[in-house]
Write a structure and sequence with these properties.
Layout lengths: L13 E8 L2 E7 L2 H12 L4 E6 L4 E8 L4 E8 L7 H17 L11 E4 H4 L1 E3 L5 E3 L3 E8 L5 E8 L4 E6 L32 E3 L2 E3 L1 H11 L8 H13 L1
Antiparallel strand pairs: 1-2, 2-6, 3-4, 4-5, 7-8, 9-10, 10-11, 12-13
């Protein structure tokens, strides 16, 4: 059985704020469960896939029927609770992650670090001293290279104003790669203490500062990237609550 899922279209990708401070906001690209359901229906047919949950919705198993082998082929992953509807959010997240294992939307992991300066992100300071934005963002354009990696990206706000552009249009003719932004490294910092992320080795694999930063965001329930020390403090605080 060989199944190739198509890449996500612009209107199938959502954008949310990952971190925000007085200098600006970092954004994340993601998909919702309806996108996975639609692509599964479209690619293998609505009667040729199924899902089931275990561990009180913490794990999801997505199965696709293999006509040649006459059996269901399964892929499984675990999810995290959302900040709103915990049980529903947990089931949805584990389903989306299981679909990532099948390759649906996996190209989102190749997205560049998306940073929007404060003036474009509409950053405001609340009375409690924390920063927030009332702006919403969407993907206006996305393109992929021959390997399936994101090669172009244009994000706009609700006023149709471009806030982030990246890709071929930014590479000068004759250059081999996209120029590195001067402050790029400084942006991968802990949400709580501001300590910059560095390259680390995790389970025998060398991770860049960006990869360590993104992994930390996935490990924290609120989606905020924190260093190991701050994650430990947060966990102890939750346990004592």
């Amino acid at each position: 059985m060989e199944i190739k899922f198509r890449k996500l279209k612009e209107d199938e990708i959502d954008v949310r704020v990952a971190q925000i401070n007085e200098k600006g906001a970092s954004l994340l690209l993601y998909k919702d469960a309806r996108v996975d359901q639609n692509i599964l229906d479209e690619t293998v047919g609505p009667l040729n896939w199924q899902r089931r949950h275990t561990r009180d919705n913490a794990n999801c198993i997505v199965s696709i029927w293999d006509e040649e082998k006459k059996q269901w082929i399964e892929k499984e992953d675990t999810g995290t609770e959302s900040n709103t509807e915990k049980e529903k959010g947990l089931a949805s997240d584990s389903f989306k992650r299981a679909c990532f294992n099948w390759g649906i939307g996996r190209e989102l992991y190749t997205a560049p670090f998306i940073w929007v300066p404060a003036e474009k992100a509409g950053v405001e300071r609340r009375n409690d001293g924390k920063y927030h934005t009332r702006c919403t963002f969407y993907v206006e354009k996305i393109a992929y290279d021959d390997l399936g990696n994101i090669s172009e990206l244009l994000i706009k706000n609700q006023y149709d104003e471009p806030v982030f552009t990246w890709g071929k249009s930014k590479i000068k003719r004759g250059s081999k790669s996209t120029p590195k932004q001067p402050e790029e490294v400084e942006r991968y910092v802990c949400f709580d203490c501001g300590k910059p992320f560095e390259s680390v080795t995790f389970k025998g694999k060398k991770l860049s500062a960006k990869e360590a930063y993104e992994m930390s965001m996935q490990q924290c329930k609120d989606g905020k990237a924190r260093c190991r020390s701050c994650r430990t403090k947060l966990k102890e605080k939750d346990n004592n609550a």
